[in-house]
Amino acid sequence: MPVEPSTSTVWLPTDPLAEQQAHHGLQPAREHCDIVWSQAAQARSKTNSDDDGDDDSSSSHKEHNGGGGGSGIGSGSGMHRLASAFKSLGSSMRSHSHAALELFRLSSHISSDLTDTQLYPELDHDATVSTSAALAPEEEAFRAARRRFILSTRALHKFLELDEADEVDAADVPEVCLGGSGGGYRACLGFLAMMAVAQKAGLWDLVWYVAGVSGSCWSIASVYTFAHLGAGDILENLGRGSGHHPLSAAAVNAVATTASGVYLQLAPLVIKLQRGHVHPGPLDLYGTLTTTHLLASPGVRRVVAAEQDRTTGRGEGEQGGELKKEWFKFTRCITSMRLDEGRNPLPILTAVRHERTWKDWSSPHSQHPHTDPKDARTWWQWFTFTPYDFGCDSLPFYIPTWSFGRHFSRNVSTERLPELSLSLILGLCTSAPAAPLSAYLGTLYRNLPTGAFGRHLREWADSWSARHKADKERLENHHPVHAQNEPNPLFEAIARTEEEERRWRGLNGAPRLHMVDAGMANNEPHTVFFRPGRKVDVVLLGDYSSDVQKDAAVERIGDGLVDRRLGVRPRPATSLPPPPSALLTESKAAQEMQRKFGSKYAQVLDTFHLPPPATRHEADALRERNVPPAPADVEPAIVYLPLLPHAVQPDYDPSTADFSSSYNLVWTQHQVETLRITAEANVWQALPTIRSVIREAYQRKKAARLARLNSG
């Protein structure tokens, strides 16, 4: 007999049967539901959601119309409001965590996960800490498989248009890496467009590693989650579902009202809260909500899409499937993307840790004097996630990726937990709000206007910094929003040598590890391609930063390689004609666009080894940071690929258009398509240069092999 719904309780269903019952006004059986939500809690949530939605709509409106006196989300005040919102959300979560657990009764589902060895086989295994920077055996096996795949598919022949009679030796295959910068959704969509062109042109089959910073990590996660979809398909999917802010009520409800939606939004936070010693914060919630929104298929977006369908008549709202738990396991792509067979590049997600030698990590409240000026230095340590391992090559240490999030003591995990949700990893990798103020100030400094006004501002800033060094240091190292915290694998680690003890100073006494968006260190991920054991020959770097037209590229790329003891030298620019396209026009604006940017879509930089440090101070700093230098035989060519305006759409500038601001997460389908057209045109025009640089690397490796044979 049907059960009338309670007037005080809302049941959120988790499978199609329960959803159908709820649709007809029936209360589904409890086993078909994720949570029980009290009516009072629902009302409170609705009020909060409505407030958030109003703020979001207001900010979006100001941004898209360029009004609001500079108060749009991309402005300084918008960033201030964003930071304040995160801090308020964090305080609310800490003070009401117990109430949240009472409201969201997810324990039965979580308990099931804690024993599901079929979905989480890692529950049967303990993890140990490797204190070597050497590649994991699984990555070594991937590298061998990738080389075999490139040879067996004749991918090099196809892309370089080699003669079919040419024999390519295994030693001749160049190691090509693809990197994407930060830049919010602009970077996410732009890097997806680059990957889409790479897949169409046959370049993807030559790439060994694909790495991202910040927004480009979303691109990688999308491609490696939907194993059956290409980057172009994902762009279409995002175009249908990006019309609402990921944190808005409409977007959250679109996921929450589907099977497992609420579970995937909240269970990672509850599991983290139950672990103890680490606490979920606002950036964890940001991670779960943005990731579920991003990875949701069109079917999950039916609430949003249905609203669009009523106004557009497209009738696309009910297409697609649902979110699945296994999509949120990063290690799953080993089999789903057939990495073990070498059929796709190895994905790398990045984050950084702010190393402050003067800070006493084991006791943050104690006074730790730093009378020695050298002890006041700060720098960023790069951490990487691959499907195989997580760690840092400058400390160094690595653990299996499936064990990240577990507590460790004395180099061994002390508990067995399921792999940490990909949503929490992405929340960490895209956590720009947790950056120190120095990152925001640096961005503002680089984007100051040219001319007398900009020059006076720079002179004033430089003068103030010189006169207030102590205040400058405190200001730059202040973090407005707390970074995510996860258990520290080096906690109570056993140092085997004095050198390890020195490198781990303070860190092995800290139970928690704090990391933030890698864009705070460098907006390009190229440094991670130089981990010992990787022998990169060509690096392709997509840049979706807001300052791509301000000639900051060489400095940014060079900064990322100094610790690897490499310098960069730009080659003379050559202008290439745009590829034939039905979208090209003969307008004066299009011709001017080609004249201005024709030589900049693919800028080649050669690398070279730097001489030894010239001063003792520089040598000590390098030793302190302990970043492994590039091997003597590794001097790759870098092809810099900035996202620039293009003649296919001469009126669109990705760097200045209101809707493609780094901080805008609300895109219409038309806007997604606008960026896609320009981004793909950029890459197609750059393709001849990319092909030429890869051919150079192939010929150089072939010549070196033949020289070795002749000399032997």
UniProtKB/TrEMBL annotation:
GO BP annotation list: glycerophospholipid catabolic process
One GO cellular component term: cytosol
Top-level taxon of origin: Eukaryota
Comp. bias intervals (Gly residues): 66-77
Region (Disordered): 1-28, 40-77
Single Gene Ontology MF annotation: phospholipase A2 activity
Biased composition (Polar residues): 1-11
Record's keyword terms, sorted: Hydrolase, Lipid degradation, Lipid metabolism
Similarity section: Belongs to the lysophospholipase family.
Name recorded for this polypeptide: PLA2c domain-containing protein
Lineage, broadest ranks: Eukaryota, Fungi, Dikarya, Basidiomycota, Ustilaginomycotina
